[in-house]
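Support reply, case 0932

Customer input (verbatim):
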Amino acid sequence: MSRDAVTGAVRTTRSADGTIIAYEEVGSGPAVVLVDGALCSRDFGPGRALARELSPNFTVYIYDRRGRGESGDTPPYSIAREVEDLAAVIGAAGGDVRVMGQSSGAALALEAAASGVPMRKLAVYEAPYVGGREGIDDLGIVTRMIADDRRGAAVSYFMVKMIGAPAFVPVMMRLMPKVWKGLTSIAHTLPYDTAVMGGFAVPAARLKAITVPTLVMGGSKGAANMKAAVQGVADAIPGSRHRILEGQTHQVSEKALAPALTEFFG
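Our regenerated output:
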């Protein structure tokens, strides 16, 4: 993702365990924090384009999740530490924020809300609770691939075996050197997203703890298991709103996402 879309001065905040988290602030208005999914960062993913669309109405914060971009990475990893990272960015944004998460970033944002991290409103798009594969230790497999420095194999395995993308997708991405380099450069964080997703099943009991107003979104062109995941999240969160964006897939357009967020965030 080009930095030309929208940029701000790079700033840092310190998470509870001392890890430095890098973020940018752009636009003006009520604060919105964007939470990226797997294999994304401020400079590689949908955050900048979405921030550009939201910046006329909101002050948008995009940040590098731990282990990505200019943020630190203090071992050992735990989901609780990532929740604390998001809480630190929310604090840096002034505390009175709206939060938007995409893909596994949606799952992280949902966990943060369920943990009681303060936020005014929460919007999520297609947390991929598409079902795990019984008897297969995906977290262990991906972790071993990273330990063996098989980054490309880890990216392919995550996309095809775990998320369900067609086998040709990573093959095509290998033909785009810049994209493939971006993916493999942060492949070491794939075990983090795998952990965040748990068993890739909707954590309905956990989501019932969410009390902030929540918008749960999905695309009309999503796969059947993804649509079921979106419905499951919406059903689990008390009082949530459920919205389907026409013509959208998991790779949602910022042009379709921004109006829905602007309406909900107010």
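We compared this against your earlier run and they match. Two observations from our side: Residues 8 and 193 are 26 Å apart (CA to CA). The beta strands are 10-14, 20-27, 31-35, 59-63, 97-102, 121-125, 214-219, 241-245. Please reopen the case if you see a mismatch on your end.
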